[in-house]
Design brief:
about 850 residues, Topoisomerase II, domain 5, Gyrase A, domain 2, Topoisomerase, domain 3, four-stranded mixed β-sheet, rod-shaped
Length: about 850
Amino acid sequence: MAEQPEGRVIPVAIEDEVKQSYMTYAMSVIVSRALPDVRDGLKPVHRRILYSMGDMGLWHNKPFKKSARIVGDILGKYHPHGDQSIYDAQVRLAQDFSMRYPVVNGQGNFGSVDGDPPAAMRYTEARLTALAEEMLRDIKKETVDFAPNYDDSTEEPSVLPGAIPYLLVNGATGIAVGMATNMPPHNLREIVAAICAYIDNNDVSIEELMQHVKGPDFPTGGIIYGTSGIRQAYLTGKGQIPVRARFTIDETKSGRDRIIISEIPYQVNKANLIIRIADLVRDKRVEGITDLRDESDRDGMRIVIILKKGTSPKIILNHLFTHTQLQSNFNVNALALVDRKPQVLNLKDMIVAFVKHRQEVIERRTRFDLRKAEEREHILIGLKIALDNIDEVIRIIKESSTVPIAKENLMQTFELSDVQAQAILDMRLQKLTSLETKKIIEELEEIRKLIAYLRDLLAHPHKILELIKEESQALAEKFGDDRRTEIVHDEIKEINIEDLIQKQEMVVIMTRRGYIKRIPSNSYRTYKTTGVKGASSSSNMIEDDVINQLFIASTHDYILFLSSEGNAYYLKVLEIPEASRSSRGTHVKALLQVSADEDIQAVMPFTEFSTDWFVFMATARGMVKKVVLHDLRNAKTRGIRAITMKDGDKLRNAMLTSGEQELMLITRQGKGLRIDEQSVRPSGRTSQGVRGINLRASDELSGSLVVDDQRDMLIVNATGKGKRIRFSEFNPHGRGTGGQRCMPVADTEQEVVGVISVEDQDEVVFITHQGKTVKLAIQNLRPMGAAAQGYKLVDITAPDMVVAVDRSVNEDDSGSDPAPEAAEPQVQPEEGPASETES
């Protein structure tokens, strides 16, 4: 027995082998399964489905056949990748919510937009649609190449003739290896118009094509917002197209608003969408929805959302657009196979590829028709010769002993070809009638005209293009319909948090220690009578803390904060955490990016960054500055510089002013200066300001106020002595002067530590160095003159001293600080727990 030769081992690096094997697998998936061909727009499985159904004779006017039989034929002949994958592909071709122009007519349960699965293939039936037949038209006229099937037992087309621009009108989706395609469907009429525009002018630009193709046209309708994504997709082959559901808003008989959704974005599962909305309502991420119903039927989609009374439909819709697929983006990635290689295509590339494919199909069809016409002409010429010499033909046939001899004699006598002689022998005697003879002559004339037309068509390529144009227009006329997806030219802007929150009146409360919160004003009861005490406090404040800011503002209003270092910050009221009436709130430093060495010195509510209002600031060194409120619009929570201070100066106070008011500047050594605000010109944010009051080296500013003839000043020194004094006690002076005496100060222990604006119904709170809090009713104090010594307001003993004074703002007081366009209705709190720090 001969020895077997030993094999030779070839060492191969594993990374090279893996790379080669993976590339082979990847290319197989890319070319043979996942990506459509740019010519007919079909993946192999879809091409095989249409071809096999056509081969079975399942035309649109023929009876349906079981899907299982169709799938079995495709599986056995062309697509050995599993029956379920074939059936799934066939089902999608029949779904009118997946395909803009379905190519399979299904009978039975073929699934729904709710994501319901189709019935098993043994229950459903299918046939081709009339439009699908246009994809197969002329396939038997040698218009496309055929290739062996997977087992070489038969042949299948490598591409369909595709008279319909399928890739553009029905789109495509597919995930290959390392790449994917996602093309939107379009309106047939628009695509055909673009094809005709290209045929008329091969140099047409994409922008000119976009005058015909407005944008994608989804089978489920919806509304496309903006054209920038469409334009980018058509120019580059990639783009993001935002699509929103179509809705209407009406009112129920009970007076509630309801949102009715009739169309949803493409490829969105309606059942999952409704579940998502229900989850948002259950988790209270969307508030204001009382009922959610799916009333869809065979007449169309109808999702009904019932809202609470007083709830803004716009706010609810913005929530739903943000958190659900009522708004989604269609991410275009126009990837297709061009010469069996994946390539990203723009709009013109796809139109050019379609026209080029149709040119080739029509040329091949024309050559086939020409060959058949010439063959028929050849036969008809022979028949005509025989009819012209019928007696001689009959004689030759009768005298011939066999058929081959008769054929040979005919060929020699009349110089006929073998085909012509055989046609004469096969001619029936009925052809000898005069009527039949006339028909042959007429047919010969028609055939010769057809031959001339076909030869002329092949000789002039521009006529083939015109034929493509005519055929495409005929298809658009037959199968085209109106656009379903509306295109709105307004771009969708990023939804602001403000758009997600109902416009609501809030009570904003801030304490001296910096705790802030907001409470809905409807938590309070408005009293129709006077003298109601109400609840003294509803904030669980820490010891020695008091409410010093309370105002009413809308959730969409702003609150400006100015710090001791001259930085400005702002929050929207809606950004302040909502809290219960008994909670302490959130510290303002948790909401703003305030450094550890600066404190909030002023808080001002307002409706908008107006150019008619100003922020008037005063520093400890007597500098003043006026900035247009609009110039601080970029402050936000990070803060921006509102005033530049030098030599350790600190911002002492800030107020919103109209630009035409009078102001009081009060120093620690008891000087008061009344100035006209117009003497301070508005300046830029980074400027230092101007001299407001001329101070001694040992003096500094204690505070500033807006002059209000309906109110008085309360001036307090460190020993607890103070007095109430009218603004009219002070005459206006020029800016930068020393002012006049308002409080006697003999030494540093008697320096002014606070000045506030008060009226009879106010209460003030004195805070001492040792943390004591004393509250005093203003109505017990009578006004005094500028030279008066004042009263002993707080009974304290050294070394304790008063360090601050402020109005005690109860929650039944809406405040009186001026705020541009800010409403300040009076409210009374409902009965609630009293403050633990009530003095």
